[in-house]
């Protein structure tokens, strides 16, 4: 267990800093030799993208420099620890699974060498490309016990819902190494991904971004009904950038239907909302802007935010507002939980262990 | 508490049921392999006439991706929303604390009696 004295010294843990790759030439040496030639010196590997791009401010160059992020963001804002989530959220829907796996491996080692090991304030995510679960598992096993890595990261964009049994070896590997699984929106609609909404591809970035929680709805329902948490009772899943107001709808629609339809999935032994509240975590960026703080307070109670909500800045992508403003209306009684305690509970001792 | 004779045993063969009206409420009497059970004809969900539902079996709690069909003939499925109840106890399969009201049944001299 983490010593309370250590925990109380912490002011904020940010579970979502998108460190950027400014020069792929620096990453290339870490990519396995057979596919290193596909990593361009400046532009990086060929990556299938969706056609949506924010019209907002460009990403500041600071996000590609670990010392500058520390100086310009972490220090002034009082963030003691940041978990790095990078910018390759469509890797799992690239058509070429071998190239995707090689890029993931290269980026992971580059992140460790460039950001994590030289800086005590950063922790890394083991980025995996789930279209080939076998290679994803190998990558988790390769880095799963590195004290600098605190979670496994997959884009939520996918070919199929994440409850499907083909993905289960990935969850087994997470549990084997005591690592939470982070899902992050961003690649929806790119490459071999299914359309980002259930009714097809959206038209604009505005529409695309707004509808992204659909991904999580699909994945949550799939993971619960396919018994992922019965098979892996210690698995924790973090849903990045999805908001929270839709969660009560999913939980209670699901619970209601389960009473009548449980016989189809007899291994789902608890009401679905129990699995959701025990295994899933949400992040504060971008928390929905409710017109009244009281609405937010009600929803936070519904989702048991005292143990399910993590502070996340999504730095440097602040097109939807300042992440510290977004947590302004969170009740004082929840603040410590959201800013520090829940992250310590989710990630455990590894979060405070020295980076070797 | 009053005891009501509601049928002769041969009126309700195994797998059969009879709906009667007792003290202003409907009661379903079921014969499961020679054992008789009585349930209030009202689903605790939305008061549907649950005793008119299909008598079925269901999948038992199991490991992931395993299917064990059992309790054949012991499960009453509400005709409105398909909630499943164990006829012997009135308890819902999904949560034993949700239950159809059940009544004590006695068999004597070939007569079925229900105590309300």
Folded structure, characterized:
The complex is a heterodimer of chains A (356) and B (116). Chain A has 356 residues and is an alpha/beta fold. Chain A has one domain: Alpha-Beta Barrel (TIM Barrel). Chain A is built from 16 helices and 8 strands. Chain A has an 8-stranded parallel sheet with strand order 1-2-3-4-5-6-7-8. In chain A, helix 6 packs parallel to helix 7. The radius of gyration of chain A is 19 Å and the shape is globular. Chain A starts with a helix and ends in a 9-residue tail after the last helix. The model of chain A has no long low-confidence stretch (mean pLDDT 94). Chain B has strands at residues 3-8, 17-22, 25-32, 35-40, 54-59, 69-77, 84-86, 102-108, 111-115. Chain B has a single domain, classed as Rieske [2Fe-2S] iron-sulphur domain (Rieske Iron-sulfur Protein, 3-layer Sandwich), CATH 2.102.10. The model of chain B has no long low-confidence stretch (mean pLDDT 97). Chain B has no helices and 9 strands. In chain B, the strands form 2 sheets. In chain B, strands 1-9-8-4-3-2 form a 6-stranded antiparallel sheet, with no helix packed on it. Chain B has a 3-stranded antiparallel sheet with strand order 5-6-7, with no helix packed on it. Chain B is mainly β and 116 residues long. Helix content of chain B is 0%, strand content 48%. Chains A and B meet through helix 11 of A and loops of B.
What key attributes describe this structure?
heterodimer, A: 356 residues, alpha/beta, TIM Barrel, 8-stranded parallel beta sheet, 16 helices, B: 116 residues, mainly beta, Rieske Iron-sulfur Protein, 6-stranded antiparallel beta sheet, 3-stranded antiparallel beta sheet, 0% helix, globular
Topology:
The complex is a heterodimer of chains A (356) and B (116).
Chain A: H1 4-9, E1 13-17, H2 24-27, H3 33-36, H4 66-77, E2 81-84, H5 97-116, E3 122-127, H6 133-143, E4 149-155, H7 168-176, E5 181-184, H8 205-210, H9 213-225, H10 228-231, E6 237-240, H11 247-261, H12 272-279, E7 280-283, H13 293-302, H14 305-308, E8 309-310, H15 323-326, H16 332-347
Parallel strand pairs in A: 1-2, 2-3, 3-4, 4-5, 5-6, 6-7, 7-8
Chain B: E1 3-8, E2 17-22, E3 25-32, E4 35-40, E5 54-59, E6 69-77, E7 84-86, E8 102-108, E9 111-115
Antiparallel strand pairs in B: 1-9, 2-3, 3-4, 4-8, 5-6, 6-7, 8-9
């Amino acid at each position: 267990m983490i010593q309370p004295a250590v925990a109380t010294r912490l002011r904020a843990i940010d579970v979502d800093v998108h460190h950027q790759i400014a020069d792929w030439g620096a990453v290339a040496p870490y990519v396995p030799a057979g596919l290193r030639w596909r990593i361009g010196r400046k532009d990086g590997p060929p990556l299938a993208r969706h056609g949506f791009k924010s019209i907002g401010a460009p990403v500041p160059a600071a996000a590609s420099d670990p010392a500058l992020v520390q100086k310009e963001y972490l220090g002034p804002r009082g963030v003691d620890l940041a978990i790095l989530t990078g910018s390759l959220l469509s890797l799992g829907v690239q058509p070429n699974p071998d190239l995707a796996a090689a890029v993931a491996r290269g980026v992971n080692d580059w992140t460790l060498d460039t950001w994590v090991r030289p800086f005590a304030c950063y922790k890394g995510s083991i980025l995996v490309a789930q279209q080939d679960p076998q290679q994803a598992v190998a990558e988790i096993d390769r880095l799963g016990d590195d004290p600098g890595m605190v979670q496994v990261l997959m884009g939520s964009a996918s070919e199929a819902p994440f409850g499907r049994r083909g993905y289960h070896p990935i969850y087994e590997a997470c549990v084997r190494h005591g690592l939470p699984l982070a899902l992050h929106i961003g690649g929806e609609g790119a490459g071999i991904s299914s359309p980002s909404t259930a009714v097809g591809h959206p038209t604009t970035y505005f529409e695309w971004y707004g509808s992204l929680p659909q991904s999580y709805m699909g994945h949550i329902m799939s993971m619960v009904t396919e018994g992922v948490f019965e098979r892996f009772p210690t698995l924790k899943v973090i849903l990045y950038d999805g908001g929270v107001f839709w969660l009560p709808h999913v939980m209670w629609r699901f619970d209601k239907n389960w009473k009548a339809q449980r016989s189809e999935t007899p291994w789902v032994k608890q009401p679905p909302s129990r699995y959701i509240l025990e295994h899933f975590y949400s992040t504060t960026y971008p928390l929905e802007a409710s017109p009244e703080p009281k609405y937010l307070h009600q929803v936070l109670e519904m989702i048991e935010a005292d143990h399910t909500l993590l502070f996340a800045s999504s730095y440097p992508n602040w097109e939807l507002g300042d992440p510290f403003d977004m947590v302004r209306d969170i009740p004082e009684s929840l603040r410590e939980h959201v800013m520090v305690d829940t992250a310590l509970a989710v990630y455990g001792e590894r979060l405070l262990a020295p980076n070797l | 508490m009053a005891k009501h004779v509601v049928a002769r045993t041969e009126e309700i063969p195994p797998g059969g049921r009879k709906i009667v009206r007792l003290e202003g409420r409907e009661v379903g009497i079921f014969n499961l392999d020679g054992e008789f059970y009585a349930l209030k004809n009202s689903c605790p969900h939305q008061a549907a006439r649950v005793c008119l539902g299909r008598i079925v079996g269901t999948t038992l709690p199991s490991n992931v991706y395993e299917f064990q069909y059992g309790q054949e003939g012991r499960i009453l499925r509400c005709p409105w929303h398909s909630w499943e109840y164990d006829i012997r106890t009135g308890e819902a399969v999904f949560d034993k604390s949700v239950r159809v009201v059940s009544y004590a049944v006695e068999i004597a001299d070939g007569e079925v009696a229900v105590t309300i």
